[in-house]
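INTERNAL TRANSFER SHEET
From: sequence group
To: structure group
Subject: N-acetylmuramoyl-L-alanine amidase

Please process the attached sequence and return the structure record in the designated field. Keep the field labels unchanged so the import script can parse them.
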Amino acid sequence: MGLAAFTDKGGRAGGVFFCAANFRAACLLLLIAACLAFPPVSLAAEAPLAATGYKMAGDATKMRIVMNFNREPDVRWFLLRGPHRLVVDLPSTKFAISAKDVKARGLVRGVRYGDLGEGVSRLILTGKGPFAVDRLDVLKNDDGSGYRIAIDISAASAREFDAALANQALTTGSTVSSDKGGRVGTGPISKPGHRFTVVIDPGHGGIDGGAEGLNGTVEKDVTLAFAEELRDRLAAAGKYDVFMTRDTDQFLRLDDRVRIARQHEADLLISIHADTIRLKGVRGATVYTVSDKASDPEAQALADRENLSDQFAGMEIKDDNKEVTDILIDLIRRETHSFSMSFAHTLVGQLSTSVGLINNPQRSASFKVLKAPDVPSVLVELGYLSNAKDEAQLLSADWRGKAAQSITDAIALFASARAGAGAGG
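Return from structure group:
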């Protein structure tokens, strides 16, 4: 076929030689035979996975992340600490994602993605503190155009994040999507050595000064001074862990305040405010809990004003769709609400013996800052800066001391009742 014998002048066999033309023909026949035996691999299967879109929706307490693909991705993911990150490994992927879509928002501090080489690409989500991965699913798009990964994360405590890391290390070191295997960070986690934890939230701050009194008193200063007084009294009791959402003149989004309470695993969140009202004769303290339906028009008007505070820094986040809105509304849990109502009732009783209260002092409205799903929360309006007597009291160290002591006493009763219920349960 491409080889021929030859002889020397004596007629002895002298070896073989290559016939180039015949050899090329033989190679062509071998190639054709190989192609018939092994069909060519699909070029589409060899092409990189295409990520064709990315969306994030939610706030600093709960986020949903969705990324679309042209075909089903083989996903593996794991958690890392320092900073808190979710790492999603993908097959080699071509990312066609808009920079504005991956801009930090809500619970996500940063998004990075790229090719690692050796057929692997990676998406990295950095959280604004610790978080839990509630779900990570690979889903087929309803219109048949491809697939998507849907990731739900929510603010969690450092202890919960560390427990998820430990669980991850004990299993495979990473996990696949939820519909193909287990997920990290689910299930109840014990709280060894956990002390009753209070988070105090001084309302407003930074460029958002809040209400302003008749004599120029600014709400953000009053609330911070009172919060510091309350913190010091609780710390002196030696029975609580106490944190503040802010201890400087700092602007904080409402959902960031909720996130801080959740990440500290707070047993109670107390948001401190001092409002103004058109009727100058109205005065006294009020205690609010959360409710989708306001107890009265005045409570709803106050909630509307407080909920607008995020717009002061031009940072308002609108819900991208009804599904996310429903998720956030569903965060209001019945048991948490019951505890909030119980503490509000106790607090009103304690405040009534030391400071003046408004008529019907226990009220409710849809305050965003009170919507943590697992943290009993109240908002305390210390008084009205629009009333000269209330304004003077709010500036009085003696009055602040009495009010702070009443709240401290109410917390002691509430914590004792919760401890007793826990021991009995």
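Handover comment: The chain has ten helices and 18 strands. The chain has a mean pLDDT of 81.
Transfer complete.
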